[in-house]
Records
---
Amino acid sequence: MTKLFRAFGVPLSTVILMFSSIWILGLIAAPQLIMIEQSLWRMERPEGAAEISVQIDGLYNQLDVMALDRSTAEAGTDATKRAADLAALDAKEAAINAEIAALEESESTPVKVYTLANFGQMGAAHLAIFAKTIAASLAVSAIALVVCYPIAYAVAKLETPRTAAVIMLALVIPYAINELLRIFAWQMILNQNGPANLLLGLVGLDPVPFLESGTGVFVAMVYAYILFMVFPLYNVLETLDGNQVEAARDLGASTWNIHRRVVIPHARPGIAVGCIMTFMLSAGSYAVPYIMTRGTAAPWFTQLIYNRFFEATNWNVGAAYALSLLAVCTVFIFGMMRLLKVSLKDIAK
Amino acid sequence: MTDQSTGKAIEFDRASVRFGQFQAVQPTDLRIEPGEFFSILGPSGCGKTTLLRLLSGFLDPTAGDVRIGGQSMVGIDPSIRPTALIFQNLALFPLMPIWENVAFGLEMRGWSRARRRDRAYELLATVALSDHAEKMPAQLSGGQKQRVAIARALAVEPSVLLLDEPLSALDLKLRQHMRAELKQIQARTGITFVYITHDQGEALTMSDRVAVMNRGRIMQVGSPDDIYDRPANAFVATFVGETNALAGKLASTAEGLALMETPLGGFRAANPKGLRAGDEAILFLRPEKLRLLAPGEATENHIPARVLRRDMEGAWSTLVVEAGGQELKLHLAHDGREAPPSGEIALGFSATEAMILPKGEMSDD
Amino acid sequence: MKPAGMGSTLVLRLYMGLFFAYMFLPLGVMVAAGVNSYSPPSITVWQGFTFRWFAEFWADARMWSGLVNSLVIAVAVMALALPMGLSGALLLSQLGRRSAGIAYTVMVSPLLTPGIIIGISTVIFWRNLGATAGLFTAILAQSAFIASYAMLMFMARLQRQDHTLEEAALDLGATRARAFRRITLPFLKPTIVTAAVIAFLQSFENYNTTIFSIGGNHTLVTEIGARMRFGISPMINAIGILFILVTVICAVVWSLLRQRERKREAAA
């Protein structure tokens, strides 16, 4: 901290610290912590609610009894005694009513209780969707890696730098075009009356309900996020010294062994970034399932989260669901980093 | 250039610097006179740049004091010290034209644009760069950039100019030219120059006095002649100039001279440190002080040797010989007529031209 | 590079061609449907060329209000995320190894967090403070992760800075603040421009974080998302064509600028 003030002087350092804390504390840490807190409590009827309702019932009984007393008192002949009796009854009745109101109030005001129950709200159905989301996201990552590795290698190492630049620029275009539009293109293609089914019809097959079966979500997801694998892979492979590959070949390595021993070890940070991005984007995607299913197929886990917040409006359960998703992504990130022996610095280049 | 700036004296008073566990500069006492051209010479990592940073103000001493013109500089920001620094890589601002570079210090002192522009042009004229004032640093050659850096430093009229190996990036010819130019500027301005270098040629040719540093300690301070002819210890003797070192033990002493037993035999040499008989010592013998003896010639110190090879250096040649299992070097004047010596030869040297110093760390260059 | 063999090169080329077809054909389908008179959007039934859907978009008030919201959010995000990212990068440059490691992890974490979670946590946080979700929360949620991109860009640039330049300025009498303004800031300028453009685009195009944080309001992109679900009008395709045009133009301009920049740097 003193180093900061030494380097930039007091006024500038103050501004730097101010903006940094707004960001780190106000926009990142505090919201995450509050979300965690939100997932850890729920409003519950207070303890002993049953006892209170017995008490309330007892008080209502007393009121009934007093109604009898009142009719007895009204039938009295002595005017002064009658007035005194009635006044006493009025006072007693008011007191009981007040007591009832207080008890009812405490009975119906729920209290904040810290509990892990929100996480347990996931029934078998939701748990299945959760698992399906994770499995499908892993599959998206795997497919993207297998499809993109040869592309990235071919562009980085086999093309001239000029051609490589043109190819990468061409790929920037679909990459930069809004995610929604790329997803929508597949909604059209896989539609009941779309070109995919038209082709199937031409070879004599029955139309397939891609969108309704959930296949569409998967296909569009691969398409939407595959380029997040190409660029990191290309970036690391571009820095691979071509002489290493030639040296390996010269020493008698087969193509497979060149990749296994030389290229892939060099590409580790790119593989880690590509897998983390595709997995994280897929698992956290709301746009793809939203647009592709039109509400007809079993939803993605993100849709459950959305529903908890904006339809069922149970924010505590919603926060718990969101936290579960975050936990899975965090585990995946650290798993990839451990597996590929890369650090956070390598990842965010 | 400027007449108004006059050099100030610099004093290190038990100043030391420690980085964690590493003692970069041992407690140092040193006085640099006003208007002196003072060099600090040493191998890389010896602490000379740290010493310079104490003066420029990017570092404060861990203990002790640093004074410029009698005033303590501890805690004084670089921006208000009466020093200007010429960086090793020159550190010209790449995004500013040359004249703005030169005028930067004046801009910081609140001069108006017109005034500082005029002043920058004036300064650039003195370093013969007026035609380049509107160019960007990247468009200049190495020597030109060098002169811009000097003009930029002089613009703030410092009392002390600090130079951190500024010539190291230049080629040999240009370096020699710039040495002369720096010396001239120093003479003209009267500013105190503190020049950091690991190049002894630079230190010896330009300086009034030189400090030789090693491992954070000043080994010797003296004129270039002192340093070369009268090294104070084994390190200075081996770091500055070439030398032959013969280890041995003192046999006897008499009147500033001593007889020393070495594997090559007994030799008489100067004993400036007053070592006593029985002390372990090293005999230092410059290659140019070692003579080739004519057959039968007698001398006080005689070394039989065998020629290994001859390295041609231009004006002289270096003869590498073997004597008593050790390699020795001597310089031969090169006249191009005599056939180079070969085979078994005899070498000699006079006792006053060799020096016996206590055993100690030697430079490994 | 010596080819591994003509056969395998040919296979790779073919594969690359297929990949490009896979990348671009779906976009072609969308473009074609955008100028087809048939509604709902289709290319299997061709009813003739039209610009009608562009006109429909032009006349759609909700799309326009979404566009205005998008622009407001994007500008605000730029104004917030850039100074935050720059401050973060400057802070990191001066922290010790350990604390810099922790701060760095926190600063890049939004990039590794699903966008919806950033949106949700922001909304929850501000509801606890009594604010309802709207443009304000969308701006904050987007800034949280867009500042991370800016921070990484500034950090990369700062690492390439020659620190002797700042020292030279101080030595010549500049205060720390002036050295920053006169030396460091000009050095950062190209990155500031790039980071501003990227922040704008990231904000403008964002869906996942925005839909979770904007409450009852909408941006152009969330509105497009809402219409897409039912795929009723080819107007969506017309908007898609406009997006593609803008993207292509931006990509070409960007690459030309970069080429020029590289040439200039090579000349210097």
Note: The mean pLDDT of chain B is 90.
---
Amino acid sequence: MKKAILVIVAIMLVASIVGCSKAETKTDANVVKFGVFEPLTGANAAGGAEELDGVRLAQELYPTVTVGGKEYKIELAIADNKSDKVEAANAGQRLVDSDKVQVVLGSWGSGLSMAAGPVFKDAKIPAIGLSCTNPLVTKDNPFYFRVCFLDPFQGTVMANYAFKDVKARKAVIIREVSNDYSVGLAKFFADSFKSLTGDQGAILAELNYNTNDQDFSAQLTQVKSLKPDVIFAPGNYTESALIIKQARELGITAPFLGGDTWEIAEFINVGKQAVEGAVMSAFFDNDAPLTPLSKVFVESYQKKYGKLPSGTAVLGFDGYLLAIDAIKRADSVDPLKIRDAIAATKDFAGAAGYVTLDANGDPIKSAVIKEVKGGKFVFKTTVAP
Amino acid sequence: MELSTFFQQLTNALSLGSLYALIAIGYTMVYGILRLINFAHGDVFMLGAYFAFYAATSLAMPWWVAFIVAIGLTAIFGMGLERVAYRPLRDSPKISVMISAIGASFLIENVGIVVFGGRPKSFPSIPLFDTVLHLGPVSVLSVSLFIPVITAAILVALLWIVNGTKTGLAMRAVSTDLDAARLMAIDVNRTISLTFGIGSLLAGLGGIMWTMKYPQLNPLMGVMPGLKCFIAAVIGGIGNIPGAVLGGFLLGVLEIMIVAFLPELTGYRDAFAFVLLIVVLLVKPSGLLGKHQAVKV
């Protein structure tokens, strides 16, 4: 018995040494590794899947990058952060330690990005946020960048819409209290809406719920008694769809407004008839090309996946391209040099518009407003910053 | 608070509570007979919902056929789970079985993620359950009226099975002393299998009813309801079937009332349920209706 254990231990030791040397040889071949840091399971899974689709499409179209006359193959290391902040930090650590990636792309969900931000910062690996819109993602983190607009802008856009288009004067906010994105966006909306109406009491109530909650009847019964003109409910698409469904069941007729996280097929699948008329801000519209690449993206996406792109897939595509662009400009696969090149990004043409990063690592981009009509996300208007 | 709002909140509370009660019954039944906390109960609940979903969508069965098929499959799955994960450990310490149950729970969740995918699915709408009824100022989804009726029917049926049939007598005998039961020529394996079958059937039914009310499926959907219903079962006195119903209603009412009367504490709604569990375990570990049992050593 003892002997058997010794033999097993010996085999494991040998295996681990062989395993290590294998990993070493793998990295110094002509390969550059992009870590994809996304929620592929849990509450945000559909969001992560869309971005991964966008990244994969970009990889198919642009599988290599040339640095110093040498062609590097791009490999994706995919880490599932499980829609969970604790798991997110672990997944980030795994990308950095065992996958040894040069660049990280992701994540859908600002809270998840914020949880892993310090990991990337400590490891000095640049990360490109795809659709994480909370200002804190890139703030004080010289290694986190992004290719999407920010929540202060998004909150203002939706407050303007509520004030001018819905002609609302009293609003109720329902926010996902454990989600940094939702709490942040709710605050920016509230600030903007109060100043538009000139009424400090314009927000009748801010009600909370938790990620993964399924029953919102108690909160919504309160909303009903407050009789708001509009309800702003930024949050994850699944909970939001259930909220709207349950609100309609309770007889609440006020329109629902939300943020970029709503534009995903599951929002309509779960909410069905109830989410008709829901209005949200979004990043991109398939029929409103912003750069020559927009058409390339929409057409090749349709060819690869057999459906029209929606939601944040386009940002996955752009994040990947920005990483390649930065590697080319740095003419190096050294993460620090890639970081500096990303930081210096100016007028980069992605599929979802031009990206020029400011000192924080944030771009200024326009937002699109969409409405659910006939079971589809229908373009309403574009709002320039 | 206006009276109409109060009645609406009360309706919300009862409809959530009856759902908890329905799932808690299965939990408590398995514990009552086997002294095993089946931590995979929530995941069997999830499977029931997925089985119904695939039967109704991919196999295009009418909803009621899909429900029966799904409930049957869930029951068979539960018996299989007992055969594979619990029976081999029957003579081991209780803690081993419990750890095996936790392992089974994670296994089912993760296989679920691989097989069903992490993206949530949505149950097709069934008009019978998905109609909004207005009773005066109170609005209620029709499924919320069915659930308490189903819960009550199951409560009566189970009490009859356990206390009024020969099989129930065998279950009680197994619960009191497994070896003595075997000596009395009771087919212990069959009795335990049957207990798991019924427990899982209830989990499957609970899962289907849950998705009728909250029409969204994902492989981790059973985790929170599983824990909540465990709490409900403990509040009522784990092992006691009417206790589980009482505990389920109590938990539902308390959760809704916290949000209704103390909105600023909404974020702590789940935490509150767990605090309640701790308090019950400290103050009255046998639960509201449970009897204190001396354990032979």
Note: The CA atoms of residues 24 and 198 of chain A lie 62 Å apart.
